[in-house]
Structures
1.
Amino acid sequence: MAKQKLVVIGNGMAGARAVEEVLARGGAEMFDIVMFGDEPHGNYNRIMLSNILSGQQTYDEIFLNPLPWYAENGITLHAGERVTEIDRFAKVVTSAGGVKEHYDVLLISTGSRAFMPPIPGLHTAGGTLKPGVFGFRTIEDTNGMVAAAAPGVKAVVIGGGLLGLEAARGLLNHGCDSTVVHLGGHLMDAQLDATGGAMLRTAMERMGVRVLLSKSTTEVLGEDKVTGLTFKDGETIDCDLLVVAAGIRPNAEIGTRAGLTVERAIVVDNHMRSVDDPSVYVVGECAQHRGMVYGLVAPLWDQAKVFADHVTGRNRDAAYHGSKLATKLKVMGVELASMGITMPKEERDEVIQFMEPKKGTYKKLIVREGRLVGGILMGDISKAAFLMQAFDRDSPLPDERLSLLFDLGAPPQKVTLDEMPAEAQVCNCNGVSKAAIGTAVAGGCKTVTAVMNATRAGKGCGSCKGLVGDVVAWFLGGAVEEDPSVHWYVPCIPMKKQELVAAIREQELKSVSAVFRALAGGVEDPASKIPLASLLNTIWPGEYVDERDARFINDRVHGNIQKDGTFSVVPEMAGGLCTPEELVRIANAAVKYKVPLVKLTGGQRIDLVGVKKEDLPGIWRDIGMPAGHAWGKSYRTCKSCIGIDYCRFGLGDSMGLATRIEKTFRALSDSPGKMKLGTTGCPRNCSEALIKDVGMVAVGDGKWEIYIGGAGGAHVRKGDLLCTVEGEDEVMKVIGRFMQFYREDAKYKERTYTWVPRIGLERIRAVVVDDSEGWCERFDREIEAAIAAYRDPWLDRDAPKTANQFASLIPAEG
Amino acid sequence: MPGDTLTREHVLGNVDEIPVGEGRNFEVAGRTVAVFRNHAGEVFASQADCPHLGGPLADGMLGGSTIMCPLHDRMFDLRTGSVLVGECGITVYPIRKAEDGTLLLSLDG
């Protein structure tokens, strides 16, 4: 088939980007491409003109597509040719210089121009701008300003928006005496509220720019060239160089002349096509989509992609749905981020703000229904990446509002993915870099699961899984495919946890091999055995058929396997308490079995590390204490502070409660993730109860606060206050219900610090405190059944469960 | 030749030394060999240590003919020794179960 001809009017950032997107979709095979540009250059980054003005960059540095690029890509460029006519019936465009081109498909990307307000004296009698007056839009404008700027020159900028402030800064660098004249009541009124505008003004004045607000210019003075301005209030000001940065106007006249619908700009449909003519597309600042005309680059990139998908037939359903406006910028050295609305608009809007004028820090967020609808960050924009993402995706915000504005003792703000160097490690456990993930994606991995399998990223402690997902999405440009299996409880059975539980209950499957036979076609997946065993033990306490091979080695021999294949021995020490006699027995056993390392654990116990498998039964027997359950995904331990007996601050018996908790809940030998608990006798939190899966804080009068979902490991999170209860019995009841709800509901390996925010504190409180679902009676029953079924696993020392349970090596018979 | 193979076979002991679905290490002619017994009654033998970081494969998770190392989840096919998840494969040894349950292993095969 013969190639079609694509003619592009406008060689600015939108037009050239749209052509790049077409080329990226194999468009060179489908189209002969012809471009018309008003300016005699290739395409440059207009946003960077302020850096040219201030002398920070040179022209070479801001060209995006220099002239040779067009030839290299087989594009005919008519530079310096302004298109004046479009004959839509003949499908021919004509330039002022008489160049005619036929088109099959036309793209209008004429952008916009500086708006010149109707101020008397702005133009000469001939209609051109008075000498000394400039817009700030093109290389020519910038060249003119640079030529006119010199030390002592009185420069005035009309317009206190971003562009006007950039112009004032640039002119200041040239030694000019700079003044900004703004019609509005505060600077940058599109992006800032009055408070932010006032702080920006202070910062600008400190740098030497004069700012005049609420000033309406009534006349530009001077005969042959500009000499001054007069204002509505009668004041005047001297002026040698005037920059008008009072906004932009779309170059839509070409559309009007061609008979296309033009309101504020040329009206397009969701495919970025003129509503009047299916062979005419429009992108960029000259396009009006759903009533919006955008003047920022991000929407323009999105529009260019939709256009290219549609015109090349790559995706005829490609649709643009509008953009949410968020920008991050630097004005006169002041860092700024702005998104959405600047002032609350509805009664339900919640405003969160912080101000530290001395440092020039201002943060304001507008939250509606738990989602961000507007925000201003000035001075400190470290949270900008997170907030802009939350704004763009309309994602729910954390309940802890303070954490939206500051990093509360959390790890320092991670660099954005764009900034992250290729060699940066994403998964520390398995040493997977950003680049390695990129290689996997380039190699065809289209899902997070596929990348994780290919690179092992996220398969260590799992704390980086979220980041791995983000990096994969970044490499795929958002085109990440969801792998349905991420929602399955185990990879070999296509069911979510609740569906699987229902099937297991209905078919009364009580062993792992029965589940494989009934639900997985008889195929035994080794990686699924452990999560299934955990689930079955939770569903059928006391009735579960315990096939030992379905347990992880730790749960077969009741110790934590070490890197050399030896095990650790941690006896139970509820609340960190033990007797001198127990200490002596532990010490003697450690000597007798030549334990290479004795270490206090984070959970206030003694860890004998490096014990050979065959020595486990003997050492347990010698120690004569129950197992501390320090190896599995189960209830682990409850640490405590010293409580009321000796501490002069104690408000509650934290040691007593910890002991009671340990002796009860040690029976929870299976759960989705480990559960580490803590009790503290006063809010000083000496036992770190606030960062435990479940933490109890004594607040006096027999009352305890119960915190859930805390973490102090690879992930640090303060627990959420579930409720405050009176007396230890109530504590036991509520936390039992909470742990059972977690055991039944959470995904395998999902710790409470992920599960609690996922389910939501309100929901958990409703279920376990208010019994909204009527499940509490069942929770209580399940917990009691587990307690009744409890047996110290270290008793296996006298009655091994399997042949050679503790043998490291069996000699062959011959 | 069957006769030749037989001469090189070592008697490990009875299959009941290994619980169903698990593995155990045997000491054979100065070497340590991991031996596995799955739910279908098949037996397999392989090198004892994971080629990744030396994890004890006999303490791993067995499913069908797949073994997963307990330390870092590397996975291997015990029929062929080929790697399923990880960097390289493992050595496997021919093993068979006599009618009376005696396990016979050939180290040189």
2.
Amino acid sequence: MNSRIASPLTSVIGSFLAFAVVSVSGHSNAQAVTPVTPRLDLERGYVFAPLAGSPATAGYGVLTNISKETLTIVGVNSESFKAIELHETKEENGLMKMKRLPKLTLKPQQKFELKPGGNHLMLFEANPLVKQGDRVTLVFQIEDKTGKPTIQSPVDVPVKARP
Amino acid sequence: MSNFGYTRGMQTDDAKTYSKISKLIGVASLVVLVGLTLAVFLYQRESIDGGDFELQYRNQPWRFSEHANDINILYIGYAKCPDVCPMTLSHVAQALKQLGPADQQKVSFFFLSVDRDHDNQDDVATYASQFNPSFIGLSGTREQIDNVSRLYHATYIIDPDPNSRLGYSISHADRIHFLDRKGKVITKIQSPHSSDEIASALKGLL
């Protein structure tokens, strides 16, 4: 970040401001939250626009751990949906069986594909304003070293119409 | 006497043996008969692959034979299914677009929700029609649903999933049934499928 800043003076001011922002956020929130740094990427990510008659829709993409540490995802949320769950779909004895994955651990650079007919994000009860062509932010919750879901990693994805 | 007695004895033993053999043959025949009857019954039950059936459309009685088209596609799932069902409905909708307008008229699509406890019938109908305005979303009583499930060997299992907001999920086959006017299965497409595969199946049947 600092290497992009032109002069040493700007660098000093930048560092001071960054420190001030962290300090303020630390004070304003009793439960310290690690500053938001993207740790996950959702390559070619999208969610399908919700349809009338069903409270559920799905999101897809290739989830990649772009951090240098092993991450355990324990939840996903968004202001645009009441709840989001990570699901796996597996075929068992000719039946498609869907189950919630409470946790997903990814090593650095490890990918996890979410695609129709397989693993997916199940999104519940969209905000009625969410429509095709919008972009929504999905925030992945990641466990910290003490096992608390304090690390957040947001991704922005488009809302697509079902083909 | 002794000779007579001996002969009589022999005759008695022979008669007993004969009687035993007869009984054995009788029992064996009965076992074979019961087995054959059972086999025929099971074979017939297994070979039942479709037929006419009754369901409900927007809370009104609905009978397949009254709505049957040249080709009828039946898919069994539920409206709250986020992944597999809408993907399949999209595939069928896209496949229909590959047909000319005249051929499209000869194909009907029926989506049966087995989730009668949670899927409102109007919701099922509205849900299906968004993939293609001609798509018909159906449901029915549990008995009607289970009858269709039996007719097409389409097992479904309602699994409680307390970890999920929905509280359950329904395991079901991802299978597209192509039916004739009598509701008999002409062909089926199993998962994984594509719109191209469905379109070429339709072109072959039309």
